[in-house]
Amino acid sequence: MTILNKISLSLIIVVFLLGFGCTSRIETPIMDENSTLIYPPKNADDVSVKITFCRKIDKKTGNLVGEGTIFTITNKSKIQAVVEFENLFNNGKDKLMFHLDWVGPDDKSIFLKRILLSPDDSLSIIKGSISVSAETREPGKYKLKIYYFRELIAEKSFELSPQPQLKELIEKGFSIAITLCRSVEKKSGERIGVDSIFMIKGKSKVRAYYDLPGLVDLGSRYLLFYFDWIDQNDSSFYKKQIVIDAEDTTSYFGSSISIRPGKREPGNYTLQLYLFNELLAEKKFELIPEPEEIPINLNAKITLYRKLDKKTGKRVDEGAIFTLKNKRKVRALIDILNRSEYIDRELKLQLEWIGPNGKSFYKKKIVFAPGDPISVINSSISISPDKRQAGEYSFRLFLFKELIAEKKFELRL
Amino acid sequence: MLVGHSSYYLNSIWHQLDPFDPVFPSWGQFALRYAGYLCAPGFLMMAGAMVWWSYQRRIKKASDWSVRWYLIQRGLFLVVAQMTWVNSSWGGFRTFNPWHFGIIACIGLSMILLVFIIKLRWQFRLAIGLAILVIHPFLLNFQYDTENILEQVLMQTFIDSGDFNKYPVLPWFALAILGSVMATGWLSIWKTDKKRMLMSLGIAATAFLLAIVIRMGRGYGNISPFSEFGSWSFLLDQKYPPSLFMNLWFFASVVLGVSLFIAIGKLSPKLLMVFSIPGKVPLFFYAVHLAILGIFVKRLNIFYREGEVLESLLGVVIMLVVMLPLCKWFFGVKRRSKNYFIQMI
User: Fold this and answer.
1) CA B325 – CA B318 distance, rounded (Å)
2) Lowest-confidence range among A101-105, A137-141, A171-175, B117-121?
3) Which residue from A80, A25, A82, A81 is spatially nearest to A48, judged by alpha carbons?
4) A215 touches chain B (CB under 8 A)
C-alpha cells in the first residue's frame, strides 16, 4: 500500500469515527423506582432525569394532583408531565437541548417539543402536557420520551383508559339523585333542612350532596363529576369539578352556594350533576325571599325581689332597695307581656347587671326560638358583702342589642 | 440515498422522526439516518461537476449558447420530473401533487443557475460558491409569513426549508458550484490519480478543519447547539436548510468520498462496478427505485414502516438486486435511443 493510500485510509477511518458520532448514554436501559426507563449516562455527573405524570398541577401550591400512570380519557382534560433533571450544566455547557416526544399506542409521535435551556433559566424542571379528549386520543399505552442533545435518555409509559359509560355506572348502583339541604351537623354529618325550597337570608347556603354507591369496581379508572348550578334565567353561574380516584373511599361529595340577600334572586333554580360531561342527575329547587321584617315593640316588665317564698310562691321584699348580707341575692323577674304578638319571630335578648361604677358585671344571653311560648325570664345576683358594695345598681334588658327596659335599685349596708 | 429511502419506507422510526428536528433512540438509527445526509450534498456536487464536464465536452462540438441551452433544458427537465413523477412516486402515485419542490428540482434549478457562470475560471466560481455559503446564514434571519403563499414559495425556493421545499436553492447551488470547481481539478488540472487524491485529501482535511472550527465556535455558521465534539448533536446541526457547518462538513465528506472511490478504483476496480452501473443513469435509478418503494411498500402497504435498522439494510440489498439489472438495461436503451426524453433521463 502506498503512503498515499495509507493517508487516505487513515483519514477515512478518522472521519468514519467522527461521522458516526459517539453516544453519551449506555444503550441498555434500567427501570428506576419511579418506573421511568432510564438510559444512564456514561459519565456519572451527566444529566439524569425523572418523569412524573399527573392530571394537573395546582396553580397556587404547585402540587401535583392525581399523580399516576393510568388516566381516563376525558374531554377538555390534559395529562401533565413533570420532568425533573439532575446535574444540569454540570459540564459547563452554555445551552442544553431537550426534546419531549409524546408517543401514541401506535408508536407514532403525537407531539414533539424542542426545549433549549440556558444557565440563566435556572430551571431544573420542564413541564409538558397533552390533551386527553376523546376526540383526539384512543385508549391504550402511551409514552413520553426525553431526548438530550438528540439522544434518548429516558422514557415512561402511561395508560389512557376509556371513560366509564353512564349506563354501566347506573347499573352498578350509581344514583341519579341529588340531596339539597340547608346545613350539615359537623359531628354526625346529619343533613339539616333537606328540602327543595330555601329562604334567601343572612349567611344561608344551599348544600348539595351526591351519595356514591359502595365499593364499585371501576378498574383503574377515575370518575370526573361536575356540578352545574343554573339560575332562574337558565344561566350557569357556578361549576364545581370533583374527581373520584379509583382508590378513593369517600361515600359522598358535594357543592354549595351562598344564598345571601343580594347575592341570589328568588326564583326556580336547577342543579345538574355531570359525569364525564354526561348528565347524571338533576334537581330543581326554589329560592324564596325572606319575609319582610315587622319592627318589634316588646313590652317587658321587670320586677326585683329578694326571694321567692317556697310555700306560698310569693315574691318576698319586692322593691328597689336591698341590704347587703351573706348568702343573700337580688332576683329579677322579666315578664314579656306581648310575647304572643311575636310568637313566630326569633327574639335575641340580653340581660345585664350594672354596678355602681356603671359597668356591667354580669351578662346573660337568651334566645326565644320562633314558636316558643315562653315569656318569662329569671336572673339573679349574689349580694354578699364580699361580692358587692353599697351603691346604685341597675338591671337592663336588651332586644337585638337595643335597650328596651331598665330597673334601678340600691344596695345598702 | 438508497439507505435513506429504504429506511424511510421500512423503518418504524419514521412514525416518530421529524426530519427537521430529528431525535434517535439508538446509535443504529442515528447512523442509518446520518448516512443519508451525504446524499444531497453528493447529488449537488456531482451535478455541478457534471455541468462543468458536460459543458467542456460539448463546447468543442457546438456553440456556447446551444450547450448552455441543452444544460438549461436538463435543469428544467429535472424540475418537471420533481413536480410530476417524483412528488407522486413517494406515495405510490396515489395522488398528483405538483406544487412541491424537492431535491431533484433543487438540482435542476442549481444546474440552470450554474450554466450562467460555468465559463468563469475556477477561482471566480470558488469565490461565488464560498460567498453564497458565507452569506446564507445571514439570509436565514429573514422573517416571513409561512401562511403567505408567495412569501413561502420565494423563501423556501431559495433560502429556507419548509413544507413547500426542504432544499432551498442557494446553499445547495453553492455546493453545486463547489462541485464544478472540484471537477476542474479532478478532470482538468490534476493529471494523475495520485495528484487527484492528494489534492482532494488536502481540500477535504481543510474543509473538515474549517467546519470543526466553526462548530466549536458555537456561533456563526451553527444553527442547533451540541453537547460535545463528535456527539450526535455535534454532527446533526441542521440539514433543512443546511447550516454553514453542515455544508462544509459534507463538502469535505463528498470530496473525501471521491478520493476513496479513486483509491478503490486503483486497489480493486471491480468493486466500483456496483456503483458505476446506477452512476451511469442516476435519474433513472432515483425515479424508479422511489416508485417501486412507493407503490409496493407504501401504497400496497407491504411492511410499511414495520422494521428497524436491520430491515432497512435488507431493503437496501433487495432494492440493489432489483435496480442493478434495471439500470444496466436502461443504460443500454439510453445508449441506443435518440429519443429526447430518454436522453434527458
Assistant:
1) 12
2) A171-175
3) A25
4) no
- Exposure on the CB side of residue B60, measured as CA atoms within 13 A: 4
Question: Which of B35, B257, B258, B252 lies closest to B133, judged by CA?
Answer: B252
Q: What angle do CA A226, A231, A236 make, to 5 degrees?
A: 40
pLDDT of residue A283: 94
Distance from CA of B213 to the nearest CA of A (A): 14
Smallest Cβ–Cβ distance between B26 and the set A20, A27, A107 belongs to A27
pTM: 0.73
Please report how many Cα atoms fall inside a 13 Å half-sphere around the Cα of residue A211, on the Cβ side: 9
Number of CB atoms found within 10 A of residue A384's CB: 13
Angle at A130 between CA A129 and CA A131, to 5 degrees: 130
Q: Tell me whether B230 touches chain A (CB under 8 Å).
A: yes
Q: At what angle do helices B309-336 and B272-280 cross, to 10 degrees?
A: 60
Q: Are A42 and A100 in contact (CB under 8 A)?
A: no
Q: Give the number of C-alpha atoms closer than 13 A to the C-alpha of residue A404, restricted to the C-beta side.
A: 22
What sign does the CA torsion over A306, A312, A313, A315 have?
negative
Alpha-carbon distance values, B235 to A17, A67, B17, B76 (Å): 11, 38, 17, 33
For residue A5, what are the contacts with CB-CB under 8 A and spacing of at least 6? B263, B266, B267
Average pLDDT over residues A214-235: 79
Chain B contact present for A5, CB below 8 A? yes
Rounded distance, CA A413 to CA A354, Å? 18
Q: What does the alpha-carbon distance between residue B37 and residue B246 come to, in Å, rounded to a whole number?
A: 9
Q: Which residue has the cell 401535583?
A: A64
- Judge contact between A360 and A405, C-beta under 8 A: no
Find, among A143, A13, A208, A163, the residue nearest to B16 by Cα. A143
Question: Which of these, A385, A286, A374, A290, lies nearest to A328 by C-alpha position?
Answer: A385
Residue A37 contacts B, CB cutoff 8 Å: no
CA-nearest of B187, B172, B169, B175 to B55 is B187
Amino acid (one-letter) located at B122: W
Q: Is B295 helix (H, G, I), strand (E, B) or coil?
A: helix
Note if the bond before B25 is cis, omega within 30 degrees: no
**Among B48, B60, B15, residue whose Cα is nearest residue B129:** B48
Q: Evaluate whether B6 touches B319 at the Cβ level (below 8 Å).
A: yes
The yes-or-no verdict on residue A95 having pLDDT over 80 is: yes
| pLDDT average, residue stretch A156-168 | 86
Longest dimension (CA), chain A: 143
Cell of A165: 359509560
For A311-331, what is the mean pLDDT?
91
Question: For B236, which residue in chain A has the nearest alpha carbon?
Answer: A150
Q: Coil, helix or strand for B52?
A: helix
Looking at residue A17, its pLDDT comes to 52
pLDDT for the residue numbered A173 = 79
Rounded-to-integer distance, Cα A293 and Cα A328, Å: 43
- Most trustworthy range by pLDDT among A58-67, A205-214, A366-375, A389-398: A389-398
By CA distance, what is B228's nearest residue in A?
A: A93
DSSP, res B140: T
Residue pair A265/A212 in contact (Cβ under 8 Å)? The answer is: no
Answer whether A48's CB lies under 8 Å from A148's CB. no
Q: Is the CB of A109 inside 8 Å of chain B's CB atoms? A: yes
